[in-house]
Design goal:
Distance between the termini: 70 Å
Largest sheet: 12 strands, parallel
Protein name: F-box domain-containing protein
Shape: globular
Helix content: 25-40%
Number of strands: 14
Length: about 475
């Protein structure tokens, strides 16, 4: 009887602990990672046991969004910011968990019904706990400043302006994204030490027209003492002005060395169709003002063109400006079309596929250093298989690249499919082989050189190519 008591106690103790509490740390981290960005699930998991607390806390506080005024008091951005500040003050170690911060602030002067909009709850336009909160976040990796409805930098209080640029300068910050926020001065990026940045992204951004012209700050050695050296500069929608501003300041402050960025990514979507009738679009004039030294410094150019029957890029000719880039090593082009736009070989250039313009620019480009070319398009492979090459200038693409680019090592063509080639359902479409054969026949130079690769992707994965 007495010998059975310890065994009974041991069984009772094991029943008090769940299987989840007995998991090793490696499995716990994998489970928490699998929960992703689901706050309720992460919160529930944090109560499982002591070993679950730290990883779930990291997941819960990894990404924080401040702003977007709501109707309820608990959604008031100032209240939420004050709550976060109090939490950071009482729990100092929590700041190390916050790696991504998104500040969202409206730029509307009027409400949707036409009445004046109140800025009383704005984190940026009025006195708020935001500067004190930013001062405690010393481990940020990504900072996103979102104006939501084209906010103006002039509305931001001096305290908030200083706090934001101080946060930009934190050595741990690697990525800065500015969305729908106009008038932010860019001179501080060149006058201060921002060498820690990896990427800068601007979407629907207009520079401050009153900002002083760039002043030379070249040192005796001929280069800036603190140079902005990005891996990627990303520009989306209405990008031309900011591209000109950055390129001009880079040349003025550093003398063109070292390169401002290794890779330039541009999304040309955003200019309405009524502009396409203009033979000289304003964007063309802006590109002409950009110093050639900037284009010569770019090694990777990733350009994305989205076009529909009501929207297209900034004109018919010289769409991608490939001729300006003379030292490219990698060129990536992504073409997105909606169903209303069809392939046309005729003169209807209003909705003609940008493929034609791409080939024309490649024929006139200077790409003697090019080693890799990728063309990703939502062209269905079934279209090639059933309708042949539908008039697309694949042969011209072949001749524009292979003979004229002696260092070209890979040429990738991405086509789309409405099925997933990896789950076996692609067997329902034996025309994949036919589509590939069509390309091989029409691009004999690349095929014979052994550099042609044809990939089939689903529309859902197209953005990741």
């Amino acid at each position: 009887m007495s010998g059975g008591r310890p065994q009974s106690a041991m069984i009772g103790h094991s029943r008090d602990r769940t299987v989840a509490q007995l998991l090793p740390p490696e499995i716990i981290h994998l489970v928490v990672e699998g929960l992703g960005n689901h706050p309720q699930a992460l919160t529930t998991a944090s109560f499982i046991g002591r070993d679950w607390y730290a990883p779930t806390r990291d997941g819960l506080f990894h990404t924080i969004t401040l702003g977007r005024p709501g109707l309820k008091l608990r959604n008031d951005p100032k209240t939420r910011c004050q709550e976060l500040l109090s939490l950071l003050t009482t729990t100092p170690g929590l700041s190390a968990c916050i790696r991504t911060l998104r500040i969202a602030d409206t730029g509307r002067n009027l409400n949707r019904n036409g009445t004046p909009a109140s800025r009383a709850n704005s984190l940026l336009a009025t006195s708020s706990p935001l500067p004190a909160t930013l001062d405690k976040l010393k481990h940020l990796v990504t900072l996103i400043l979102d104006g939501t409805d084209a906010a103006e930098w002039s509305y931001v209080t001096p305290e908030a302006q200083k706090a934001i640029y101080s946060t930009f300068a934190i050595p741990s910050v690697r990525h800065i994204s500015i969305v729908n926020f106009n008038g932010i001065p860019i001179s501080p990026f060149f006058e201060n030490d921002f060498s820690h940045l990896i990427s800068l992204s601007f979407t629907s951004f207009k520079p401050d027209p009153t900002e002083d012209e760039p002043r030379s700050s070249i040192s005796k050695s001929g280069t800036s003492a603190r140079s902005l050296q990005l891996k990627v500069l990303l520009l989306h929608h209405n990008y031309a002005d900011i591209l000109l501003s950055f390129a001009s300041r880079w040349v003025s402050t550093s003398g063109g060395q070292p390169p401002l960025t290794q890779e330039l990514r541009i999304n040309t979507m955003g200019i309405k169709r009524n502009f396409i009738h203009n033979s000289v679009h304003p964007v063309h004039a802006i590109w002409e003002k950009i110093p050639q030294a900037f284009f010569d410094s770019i090694r990777v150019y990733d350009v994305r063109n989205e076009r529909s029957s009501v929207s297209r890029a900034f004109g018919t000719n010289d769409l991608f400006k490939i001729c300006r880039f003379r030292n490219l090593v990698i060129l990536k082009v992504r073409l997105l079309m909606d169903d209303a736009v069809t392939w046309r070989v005729g003169t209807d250039e209003h909705i003609r596929h940008p493929f034609y313009e791409l080939v024309a620019e490649l024929e006139n480009g200077q790409l003697k250093h090019l080693e890799e070319f990728k063309l990703a398009s939502n062209i269905p492979f079934k279209m090639l298989a059933k309708r042949g090459l539908v008039g697309a200038p694949w042969q011209k693409l072949d001749k524009a690249l292979v003979p004229r680019c002696p260092h070209l090592q890979s040429l990738h063509i991405y086509l789309t499919s409405d099925v997933n080639p990896l789950d076996g359902s692609a067997l329902l479409y034996p025309n994949i082989g036919s589509a590939v054969s069509q390309l091989q026949i029409s691009m004999p130079l690349a095929f014979e050189k052994g550099i042609l690769t044809v990939c089939v992707y689903t529309p859902a994965s197209f953005n990741g190519t």
